[in-house]
């Protein structure tokens, strides 16, 4: 049933009712902005008048507006209504993660017209990139590079970087690494595409994933022809029990994304046992394993069985996504297949690889990680303290590590909170967007809050905006939906709460 | 029919006769070296004894040895026989271009155990990479980069680089460029994979290519599900006449690879006319358009019709393959599809992109290209003069541009010449390896000689080794095979000969 949005000449194809209305409206609006049919600065009709125009609920329109504000396509400020963001180019590359797969942004869309407050997860503090140290390392690397480094390279990547990584990963992450089994790739997304292609070439059809995770990963796998099936989770983390004949399982054992928990040791043993029994592959996405605040980092699952686990690390969180440098540590039997799936040639710039190698071997990487850990820990502590003071009804989980936490909301309040955030020009994600479409676990209302992104000077303002939009503890919370209510054990959480223990 | 090579415990699966014997033997030996079954330094049996062992012709064994010496897997020196090269890792990344597709090395295998003399085409003089100037540009780029440059990027690549490229390509190559329509990619191979995926997503099945070209390009297209069909050529260059409903045609108009000619203006018009009539796409691989010695560079075909031609350029020849930076200038309607086919995210390091942008805008790129052009021209002139003096029977064609030339050999002498080269530890390619398997043009015997690779100090030694292996002009040449014999017009050549006109 097609409806025409006469006011703006945008054709919408909407189901008459149900959750798809909002999705359809969101997609149509995003597309209209992206293609330029809705010009930057255009003022949109009020949610009330558009809802009347379309014959749908006003809340549906308000939710769609809120989503698109959060994604950066629209802006909303009290007094001037909702407008198409200026600085939005009619071009690719800014598609939200709810656009048609496979778009495959490495983590999430980064609006170019920045919101006033950015608490989206997935990106570290880019203002803290160690420019001077990096340039020093580049100078050393350029001076030391053999001429052949400027030629066509080994598809596994530069040997200097693989050697430095093997040493670092063994020392810092407990990875059993060997330079010959490391494959450098252009970000984890690229590594996942390589693994997907490799699995497909082996005839695989299904990969198990976690119930909550990054949709771009599911889409990247789908793009290689693999179906993803979600595993359930509980207070011990993702449960490998239902694993049967899947070709592989993709996990975030050190720090579940986005829930924030650590995979329990029994679960670690169980998943490795499954891999040994069936020949399945475990893919360990260790995206931010360096950042653990209250005790020693959790060692890599790969250390348990390097013959069945692919360890995947990245410089995207510890340094910067813009470097496009990540690495896979592969079981011996997979190296050649992975190099072939990569296309048989290196795709990462040799100079950046040599620079990262010099950065690692000089100790600059360790120094940068230590300094970053301290800075992020301070932010987390301030955040937890502020929440305890101003929003004691909100429980923060997954706070022991990483660059994000989960704020559990009273049931039924996630959408309203996101809407309130969009009016504050606060970019933040709800937990629902990270839920696998076939997940069977009970849905939770929560915010996934990234505290890495804001530069230091913007941090307190962002915190202020956050506290202003958090829902009160009464009402909706009292109507908690049983086992997933705010009072239940934190699924896959760290067993720590806002007290920071 | 399986035969076991008892001497070394290598199982061979050989046809009893025919051209496949050599291919099978070459593949089996390469595989044995690659996997480590034949250890580095191992002395191989003489061609006579292995031939007797296998019941095949001695020449077949000698040819296979010669091929593998040229690829760097084996070494052959008079007095010490044929041995497995030392420094050959049991690893991927060194597969020769005759290994099973799709290996997709960007241009050709670069043996890690370097031959004494390297005249393989496809790689510039790596020793001339402008390290100091590059570091200067990196310093400027790092100082000027906005923080967001370190984040997840536009899938088209950094806007600073696209802007600098648009200006440069318009000025230097006559490309009608717009930063919004440029897509930065990790080498031309990556660009071709993106275009292949895009064409497949549109339902395409066939792409026309030139009769002589790079097999990795055919394999990369095959890897995306596209069949390649070769077009014939004559003295005007590749003939677009047979084009019908192919989805695209891949051409090297400015400097045919490997033949060296320029596409005649009538052919340029004809191919653009075909694209307009049918909606087909022309992909212009302008891999070394900067290097033309005797007159102004030939402008890009894309200038004729930016709506139907994809222009593809690269830093691999003008600077270094190790940068993994290339660019596509796309028709307006393809930008979004290409960005999606790229995976929806940037895959090239932001800092290298910013550095190349700074390198371009500061004029350092122009200076480097001018200096390189002079150096390569001197080499070419010395090569042509030396050949005229010492091997006047050999005709050099395709010498007006680029980093390689074609040395036409008397019919039937290509294999023997390559064999002689392997005994001199001279790495050089025969023309046959660049011939499309379904090409219908008459095969030619020739060498494809790259004069970019040797550093300056090694150049005269390489020239000496080359002159020592070139066949005499009598005998085979007198038995010229009609229209493709050495005396016929140079197909797709420049119409210039060794006199350098």
How many structural domains does the protein architecture of chain A include? 3
Largest sheet of chain A: 7 strands, mixed
- The coarse overall form of chain A would be globular
The oligomerization state is homodimer
Mean pLDDT of chain A: 83
Chain pair forming the biggest interface: A-B, 67 and 67 residues
Strand content of chain A: 5-15%
Number of helices of chain A: 13
What is the share of helical residues of chain A? 25-40%
State the name of the first-level CATH class of the largest domain in chain A: Alpha Beta
**How far do the termini of chain A sit from each other?**
53 Å
Specify Rg of chain A, calculated over alpha carbons: 23 Å
Low-confidence stretches of chain A: 1-11, 88-112, 474-501
The helix-and-strand class of chain A reads alpha/beta
Word description of this protein:
2 copies of one chain form a homodimer. With 501 residues, the first copy, chain A, is α/β, with parallel strands linked by helices. Chain A has 3 domains: 5-84, Arc Repressor Mutant, subunit A (Orthogonal Bundle); 131-364, Aspartate Aminotransferase, domain 2 (3-Layer(aba) Sandwich), CATH 3.40.640; 367-497, Aspartate Aminotransferase, domain 1. Chain A has 13 helices and 19 strands. Chain A has helices at 20-34, 47-54, 58-71, 131-144, 159-173, 188-201, 215-223, 265-278, 335-341, 350-361, 364-390, 414-423, 459-469, and strands spanning 2-5, 10-13, 74-77, 81-84, 117-118, 182-185, 206-210, 227-231, 233-234, 237-238, 248-251, 281-285, 309-314, 326-329, 395-397, 404-408, 426-427, 429-430, 446-450. In chain A, the strands form 6 sheets. A 7-stranded mixed sheet of chain A has the order 6-14-13-12-11-7-8, with helices on both faces. In chain A, strands 15-16-19-18 form a 4-stranded antiparallel sheet, covered by helices on one side. The first copy, chain A, has a two-stranded antiparallel sheet with strand order 1-2. In chain A, β1 (2-5) and β2 form a beta hairpin. Chain A is globular. At the A-B interface, α4, α6, α7, α9 and α10 of A face α4, α6, α7, α9 and α10 of B.
């Amino acid at each position: 049933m097609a409806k025409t949005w006469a006011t703006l000449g945008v054709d919408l194809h909407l189901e008459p009712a149900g959750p798809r209305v909002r999705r359809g409206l969101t997609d149509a609006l995003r597309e209209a902005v992206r293609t330029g049919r809705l010009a930057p600065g255009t003022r949109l009709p009020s949610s009330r008048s558009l809802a009347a125009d379309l014959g749908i609920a006003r809340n549906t329109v308000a939710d769609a507006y809120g989503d698109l504000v959060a994604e950066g396509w629209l802006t909303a400020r009290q007094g001037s209504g909702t407008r198409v963001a200026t600085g939005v180019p009619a071009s690719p590359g800014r598609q939200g993660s709810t656009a048609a797969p496979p778009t495959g942004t490495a983590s999430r869309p980064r609006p170019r017209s920045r919101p006033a407050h950015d608490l989206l997860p997935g990106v570290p503090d880019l203002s803290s990139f160690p420019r001077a140290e990096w340039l020093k390392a580049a100078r050393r690397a350029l001076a030391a590079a053999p001429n052949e480094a400027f030629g066509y390279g080994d598809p596994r990547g530069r040997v200097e970087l693989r050697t430095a990584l093997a040493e670092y990963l063994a020392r810092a992450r407990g990875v059993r690494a060997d330079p010959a089994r490391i494959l450098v790739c252009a970000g984890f997304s690229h590594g996942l595409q390589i693994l997907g292609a490799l699995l497909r070439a082996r005839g695989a059809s299904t990969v198990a994933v976690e119930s909550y995770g990054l949709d771009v990963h599911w889409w990247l796998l789908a793009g290689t022809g693999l179906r993803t099936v979600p595993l359930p989770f509980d207070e011990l983390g993702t449960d490998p029990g239902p694993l049967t004949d899947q070709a592989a399982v993709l996990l975030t054992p050190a720090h579940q994304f986005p829930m924030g928990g650590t995979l329990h040791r029994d679960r670690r043993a169980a998943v490795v046992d499954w891999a040994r029994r069936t020949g399945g592959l475990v893919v360990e996405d260790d995206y931010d394993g360096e950042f653990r605040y209250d005790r020693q980092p959790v060692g890599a699952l790969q250390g348990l069985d390097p013959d069945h686990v692919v360890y995947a690390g990245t410089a995207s969180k510890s340094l910067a996504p813009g470097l496009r440098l990540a690495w896979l540590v592969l079981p011996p039997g997979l190296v050649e297949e992975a190099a072939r799936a990569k296309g048989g040639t290196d795709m990462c710039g040799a100079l950046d690889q040599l620079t990262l190698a010099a950065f690692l071997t000089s100790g600059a990487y360790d120094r940068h990680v230590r300094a970053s850990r301290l800075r992020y820990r301070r932010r987390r502590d301030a955040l937890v303290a502020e929440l305890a003071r101003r929003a004691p009804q909100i429980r923060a989980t997954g706070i022991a590590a990483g660059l994000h936490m989960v704020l559990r909301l009273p049931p039924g309040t996630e959408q309203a909170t996101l809407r309130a955030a969009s009016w504050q020009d606060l970019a933040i994600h709800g937990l629902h967007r990270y839920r696998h479409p076939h997940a069977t676990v009970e849905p939770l209302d929560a915010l996934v809050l990234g505290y890495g992104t804001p530069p230091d000077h913007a941090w307190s303002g962002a915190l202020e905006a956050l506290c202003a939009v958090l829902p009160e503890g009464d009402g909706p919370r009292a109507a908690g939906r049983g086992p997933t209510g705010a009072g239940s054990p934190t699924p896959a959480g760290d067993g720590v709460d806002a007290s920071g223990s």
